[in-house]
Amino acid sequence: MNKKIDQQSADNIRALAVAMVEKANSGHPGGPMGGADFMHILYSEFFNYDPSDMTWPFRDRFFMDAGHLSTLMYAQYYLLGNYAKDDLANFRQWGSITPGHPEVDAKRGIENTSGPLGQGHTMGVGAAIAAKFLKARFGDWMNHKVYGFISDGGIQEEISQGAGRIAGHLGLNNFIMFFDSNDIQLSTSTDEVTSEDTAMKYKAWGWNVVTIDGHNHEEIRKALTEANNETERPTLIIGKTIMGKGAVAADGSPFEGYCELHGQPIGATGADYQKTLLNLGANPDSPFDIFDDVSGFYKNLLEQKTAKAAEKKAEISIWRKNNETLANKLDFFLSGELPELDFSSIDHKAGLATRVASSNVLGYLAENVENMIVSSADLSNSDKTDGFLKKSSALQKGDFSGSFLQAGVAELTMACIANGIALHGGIIPVVATFFVFSDYMKPAIRLSGIQELGVKYVWTHDAFRVGEDGPTHQPVEQEAQIRLLEKLKNHSGKNSFLALRPADSAETSVAWKMALENNNTPTGLILSRQGIKDIAAQGNSRYSEALGAEKGGYLVKTVENPDVVLIANGSEVATLVAAAEILEAENNLKVSIASIISEGLFKNQSKDYQNSIIPKNKPLFGLTAGLPVNLEGLVGDKGKVFGLEHFGYSAPAKVLDDKFGFTGEKVSKQVLEYLKTV
Fold first, then answer.
1. Which of 355, 357, 640, 678 could form a disulfide with 460 if both were Cys (CB 3.0 to 4.6 A apart)?
2. Number of structural domains found in the chain
3. For this structure, is 599 an active site residue?
4. Co-location of 119 and 212 in the same domain
5. Of 111, 230, 411, 572, which is the active-site residue?
6. pTM of the predicted model, to two decimals?
7. Same domain, 567 and 521
8. What is the pLDDT of residues 72-89, one digit of tens each?
9. What is the CATH number of the domain that holds 473?
């Protein structure tokens, strides 16, 4: 401990943050200037990782919530050698590795993409759950910590309630969060929008809460020590900080604590850029330099961190030698590979709802995939994830031997936690709710896609056939919204999402196979509430034929030179089968039927394959219980899509099928009317 070096290091971080924003002429300098003291003390004295092995699985992890404070991270990690001077100088520029909001890059210390407030620390809660899950299976040596950093805005986001409640309820003592409480927001001071007692709120959720001067290094040190020694509760460190700490005006007088310092270069405020750099000990002519003494300190620190990590690795090596079977299992978990699975062996009764077929699959997975956490937003007996729960047990405070997370009514929180579990590594996260409530989850689904995380989303009650529950519970536009993500490429150039709506039980088994094998993007399974008549096998094995779904689409019924090709997914495929029987028997038409479980995946196939399933020279008719746009890209300009263009109504599902025109007889009439126009 060296007070002079500690102060210089924190001021160096401040100066770098100021310089980055000023050069970019864009960004948020005030918050990083306030949080610099905590970051320095955390990383210099408490944070355990291996500088020579940044993705070491047993490292501590830092989850940033306030992504607009990205310069705080870049500056700190620059001192740690994770970034070069030019990286900071290119902040927010095209092609730089220092974007305006941090994007996951574990090799440089960035554990999560952040920016949408509230999600970052909630992902941290997910990582802490993952760490507890693995510790319960492999031993107390797996004792790494997860640190979070949250701002006044993040505390206000509604998701913070879900994260705070779940972390406290589960007793996540391995989660330590710093609240940068500077009482300033982007457009106002916090007292204009809130008067709650944050400390009391978190105490009510079962947290250990410590309030400190966020610029007092000794108080930071004491709080972090206490948090690391806590055995029962997560810890919230409320650090009272000053927005723009260290900023001065042209006359050298302090210019701190002002709202205008939040979201613009300080040179555009009442503060003076050059005078502020000088006040912080920096050289305005070379603002991206690391101070000489700070450079020497951090060079020695990195050596110490590497040596400490080596000691930990030696301890783990001894454990591995003494626990060879467990060690092999741990390596398998961390590899992301799957055990040998036989989805064809899963038995389904005839005519099941696809949610029930999914339950059968989940029961099988509970017995065969040991590193899976399934979660439901208080709907496990309805979304049928209880098929997994019945063969496992719920995670509980002090007991993480189970594999099921009862999230409560908190869809967005649950989805963010799943992202955090995926980011931690070693565990496959699955989350479930009704499809209409995917609306609540959308921000986290988007971050799943951006971060390229293999989260599995299970959405049941997929259409207006929810029936008596009425329009609030009947998804119409949701499928179109989710499938937009199939049309959006991630930064690896792949579809950012895989949306699967299976037509029957066999396709549901295949959909789960596809979901588990899809490690690099999120997958959504869109499942029915009502029973569905199974698609008849054209040959000997319906499951073998359903494997055609692995190409996004295939023919469930094929004839030579069809008069019309009918196209659907999910429940509507069976309706098309019923319509085809009428068209063939009563109208002497030849009909092929395509089940397109994923338009995005289907359009990744060769043009020849696509044309073999949906020939452009044939009349094409699509049927969807959602918006017609779901299939318009498949049938083209000359085709016809019959879909729903209004909200649902409250009535039994069979009544709605009839009223809305989703029966075999009424669809056959729609097809005939269409054929008159081609």
1. 355
2. 3
3. no
4. yes
5. 411
6. 0.98
7. no
8. 999 999 999 999 999 999
9. 3.40.50.970
